[in-house]
Automatic annotation (TrEMBL):
Name assigned to this protein: Late embryogenesis abundant protein LEA-2 subgroup domain-containing protein
Top-rank lineage group of the source organism: Bacteria
Amino acid sequence: MMKNILYLVALSLVLISLSSCKLFKSPTVTKIQDVKVISITPDKSTIKISFIVSNPNCYKLKLDQLNVELLNKDRYKVGNAYLQNVVEIPKKSAMCLDFNVELETRPVVKMVSSIDQKVQFFITGKGHGKVMGIGKKFKFDEPYELDLKEQLKSIIPKFSTNGQSLFKITKTTVEKIGIGETELQVHFIILNPYGLTFNFKGFPAEIYISDKYAGTGNLKNQLKFNENIYSQDGVMVFKLNNLKTILGAVKGAVKGEIRYSVKGRVLIDALGMEINQPYSYQDALPVNILEMLLN
């Protein structure tokens, strides 16, 4: 009997205390603090979402559930994340929580605006918290715009992903030999694993043979990509000064291989942006180029 009385007294005190704080109030997501792109690969992209969860109560709150979803502008789910561990938020205070959300890259690329390179989506979630053993559910739904301009500027002109080159040389050929000038063609393939839409419109560059300047070149034709074009073949055409080429080739021949390097700037139109970034590559010349020039 005494135990029951003590229990009722304790319960009454709890209820009185909660009443003094206008009963148990639900926790709320008061602000989307930040959204950052952590990584982008051809298959998966990771976005870190940081938001503020507030505890308006006079007692600490135990947040034991929180499921976060990312919806596109048509409100279809494109990614989600879950609270891994119980979080305690002190009374009358707030805490910033971070969630890493994994997304499929190609659907995200389709969401990018060609006007301002932003992705519009909704951050939604459902959670559950407890105060003094009493639980309540809560939910939130917030629109957000993520600016991908800098990420796209970084990805597109680098022609690489996960340490692997997306610009691959297939062959180097000597096409025409004149009295003072020779035409060299570099054949290559460009991969588009992200499904990006862009126009590779130019690549003005200088070519060096065995580290000696030999001439200039550019793309033979522009290359246009969209989400359905995974790869394309292209050609760069260089005009080489014969004398400078011979000098560089002789130096390389002594070493057993005639290497060349190309240094220039890639010119790309992508999603409303004009990208102008440095890019370089290197390979070997045909072994018979010296003989061809001397003859």
